[in-house]
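Lecture 7 notes: from sequence to structure.

We start with a single chain of 140 residues. Read the sequence below before looking at the structure.
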Amino acid sequence: MKHITYIAHFMQLAKEIGAEPILLYVPMPGQSEIVFDSLGDKIHEYLLNDFPAELDRLSTHTRIQEVCVERVQRIELCEDLIELEGEATNTVSLQYGSDHETIGEAEDCQSFPMRFTAAVERNQKLTNLNCDINTSDFYE
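Now the structure, written as tokens:
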């Protein structure tokens, strides 16, 4: 069905229900990229306050060093917040034994892929984060 046919059908439906039609045509943009500069930092901070069990069980002292957002696959603009879905990489340091037993020893750093969904309020506060961190490489 061509655009003219859709418009005619839309106008007829509006007329049948006694509504005044408003037609808005928005051309589809080419591929674009939206960058959330501090999203990785916000996820990192959130995870420090709600430490994921799948990372915690890797060592005696697991520390998240960095969260790098690789891509955001879905963005949904809601009334009061933005919902995001994407992929990131968690870089963690793994320490075995207590802090005073390992003084001077190098920590083992590893990276793990993560899928996430997040809600960001208008004030840019991350209010909800659900993540699935794949640590299977650690056990191989």
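The chain has three helices and four strands. Keep this in mind for problem set 3.
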